[in-house]
C-alpha cells in the first residue's frame, strides 16, 4: 500500500517544542495514572489442585 | 474527612501505598503519593494545589480539579459494599460417620482427617498421602470435611472454620492448608505476613521463591531442583512469618501435571505408578511427588524472587527485573495479611529483595543458574 500520509521526522527537542504548552498537562496525566493491586482475600490453593468443583 | 490508615514505601521511582480499610496496594508516582499523604493529613486542597501548580507550571484551577479527583477516586471509601449473606449454619449437622479417616504425621504432630466420601477425600488427601500413618488412638488435631447442600464444610477441633461453594474449592483447600500450617508452626493467622503462590527451594541456609503463572513450570522446576540436591521447602503454598520474614516449610506434595511427566520420569520413575492417585468413582487421576524435605519445622530467610518459565527451544534468559514489575505480579496472586504491622513488614521485606526472570528450555542450564544464586 502506498503511504500517502505526509510524514515529517522530527527529533525529541523539536517534538517537545511542538507540544509546547501541552506537555505540562501530559505530566499531570502521568501523575493521575496508577495501578491498584488487590491481594487475595483469603488463602488459596492453585485452582487446579487436586481438582475443582464437586 | 476521616483519616485513613496508610503506609508508604518508595521502591525504585514509585511509591507503593497501602490502605488499611481495603488491604489494597497502589503503585503511585512519588508526587501523587505525596498529594495523598498531605490530603490524608488534612492539608487543604488549595494549599496542595498551589505547590502542584508551581511544580508543573499549570493554572491552579487545573491542580484543584486534579486533586479533588484523586481524593474522590483514592481516599473516599466506596459506598456500595457487597452484602454478605449471613448464614448461621443452624441446620447443618455434622455427619455421624465418615467413610475415610486418615492420620497424617508431620514431625511429631498427628492430624486426624475425616472425609465424608471419596469426593472430599480427593480434594485434600493426594497432597498429604505421603504423610499418612496407620490408625492411631492419640492425635493432636482433628479436621473434618463434608459436603452438605452443595457447600463444603471444614471443622477443626470441633470448631466450624468456614464453608465454601464448589466454585471456591481452591479457597477451601487454601484454608485447610492454612490450618495445618498454623498447627505445625504454632502460629495463628495474624502472625503470618503472607501466603505466596510459589515454590520455595532451599540449600538449608537460605531459600529462593519461584513464581510464575500456572502452567509456567514452577512445580516441574522444583522437582528438577530437588533432584539436584536442593531441598523443597514448600510447593504452591508458601507461608512467610511476619516476625522474622522467613519462609516456613509446608509438607504438601508437589503436584505433577501430565505434560511434565516426560521430563520427570527419567529422574522420578515412581511417577509412573506409585505417585498416581486414582479416584475410581470420580474417574480421576492425579500425580503427586513427595517433597525431599524431612524437617517440616524448618524456616529460612529469603532474599530472592525468581519468575520462572519453561519455554520449549528457548535460549537461557536470566536477568534482574524491575521490582515494580515483580510487585505487580506478586500481589494479586498472594494472600497478604490485612494487619498494619504485617503490611509494613511486607513492604520492608519486598523492598530489599532481588527479583529475577529466568526462562529456560534446558534443565541443566536452569539448575546451574539457580545453584549459582545460592
List the helices and strands and how they pair.
The complex is a heterodimer of chains A (54) and B (374).
Chain A: H1 12-19, H2 23-31, E1 35-37
Chain B: E1 6-11, E2 14-19, E3 24-29, H1 30-41, H2 45-56, H3 60-75, E4 100-106, E5 109-115, H4 118-128, E6 132-133, E7 141-148, E8 151-156, E9 159-165, H5 169-185, E10 192-196, E11 199-202, E12 207-211, H6 218-227, E13 231-235, E14 238-241, E15 246-248, E16 254-255, H7 261-264, E17 276-279, E18 284-289, E19 299-310, E20 317-320, H8 323-330, E21 335-336, H9 340-351, E22 354-360, H10 363-373
Parallel strand pairs in B: 5-7, 12-19, 19-22
Antiparallel strand pairs in B: 1-2, 2-3, 4-5, 4-6, 7-8, 8-9, 10-14, 10-21, 11-12, 11-13, 15-19, 16-18, 17-18, 20-22
Quote the distance from N terminus to C terminus of chain A: 56 Å
User: Quaternary arrangement of the chains shown?
Assistant: heterodimer
The largest β sheet of chain A comes out as: none
Shape of chain B: globular
Rounded to the nearest angstrom, the radius of gyration of chain A is: 24 Å
Average pLDDT number of chain B: 91
The largest pleated sheet of chain B is described as: 7 strands, mixed
Number of helices of chain B: 10
Radius of gyration of chain B: 24 Å
Q: Beta fraction of the residues of chain B?
A: 25-35%
Which second-level CATH architecture of the largest domain in chain B applies? Answer: 3-Layer(aba) Sandwich
Count of individual beta strands of chain A: 1
Helix content of chain B: 25-40%
Summed up, the helix count of chain A is 2
Strand content of chain A: 5-15%
How many individual domains of chain B? 3
Straight-line distance between termini of chain B: 50 Å
Task: Please give the number of β-strands of chain B.
Answer: 22
**What structural category characterises the helix and strand content of chain B?**
alpha+beta
CATH fold node name of the largest domain in chain B: Rossmann fold
Q: Low-confidence parts of chain B lasting 5 or more residues at pLDDT below 50?
A: none
